[in-house]
Amino acid sequence: LWALLGRKTRARELDIRMVLSALTRPLLGRAAAAAPLADFSHEAVNMFGNMRTPAALVAGACLPLGFAFAFTSKEDTPQLRALKRANTALGFLAVNSELLSVVFATNAINRLTDEAGSATVMATSLAGLLKHDAFQQFWLGVYTHFILGIVGLVAMVGIRSWIAIGPRLGRPVLMLTGAILLRLIAACNRSVVVEDFGSGPGGSNFVYLVARYVAVTVGATWRHRRLFDGLSLALLAAALVTFARRWEDLGEWDEGYLGVE
Fold first, then answer.
1. 136-165 vs 41-67: helix axis angle to the nearest 10?
2. Is 200 helix (H, G, I), strand (E, B) or coil?
3. Angle, CA 21 vertex, CA 20 and CA 24 arms, to 5°
4. Phi and psi at residue 79, in whole multiples of 5°?
5. Predicted local confidence at residue 10, as pLDDT
């Protein structure tokens, strides 16, 4: 009899625990989901600062690689002229890309410092703050332009090595340059920034990050009617179309160019 009563008591206790667990689980879930807001402006300033200084250094390194270079001449082969022009174009793009990264980072740091302690910088995490409408375009622009500038830097090193070594031994150099660039993008694909901002079908990668940056820029331009952003995007599109039509002329010689017949 006592054994029977003990089993019934334990069964009732188990039923009570199960009922209490079912009742309290939603409450605990809501409490965990509603994480407290905090000021992450200081951490965000450090993140932007970590990108601004390297971007300035890369910009300085790209200047001599892109422009301390002999102009094309009539005596150059079409291949050599194409390489020289490609090198200068990459230098132009890389330097300006890194300068954009520096400017975006500086603007973001100034705003974060000014808004410290306000509702604008309150978030549940640092990633949440960087995804805020006020800072998302800054952060995507800083990281995207920084990586694109480094890609240009590596490509210029490969082109100058090709020219210095010659086409026979230069081809392995270009192959190694391609391997380094792919390795660089692969490292970016495993970064926290790409994982947080570059998600897409099949996972996260740098291509999705660039696509999101473009989408955020276009969306912000349209919503806020930003004239200069709109003109910038229009000129970018026109430049890409013009290059696509004339890329075959990269190695051609223009008579009378630079006053040389």
1. 30
2. strand
3. 80
4. -65, -45
5. 53
Q: Amino acid identity of 59?
A: A
CA distances from 120 to 41, 127, 138, 158 (A): 9, 14, 15, 44
Question: Residue 171 pLDDT > 90, yes or no?
Answer: no
**Whose CA is closest to 47, among 124, 125, 99, 151?**
125
Q: What Å distances lie between residue 77 and 1, 82, 117, CA to CA? A: 106, 9, 62
Q: CA 11 to CA 70: how far, in whole Å?
A: 90
Sequence-distant (≥ 6) Cβ neighbours of residue 58 within 8 angstroms: 94, 98, 146, 149, 150, 153
52-62: average pLDDT: 95
> Which of helix, strand or coil describes residue 34?
coil
Distance between CA atoms of 127 and 47, rounded to whole angstroms?
11
Q: What is the pLDDT of residues 26-44, one digit of tens each?
A: 544 544 455 688 999 999 9
Give me the count of residues in the chain: 261
Whole-angstrom distance, CA of residue 37 vs CA of residue 119: 9
Long-range contacts of 203-207 (CB under 8 A, 24+ apart): 206/147
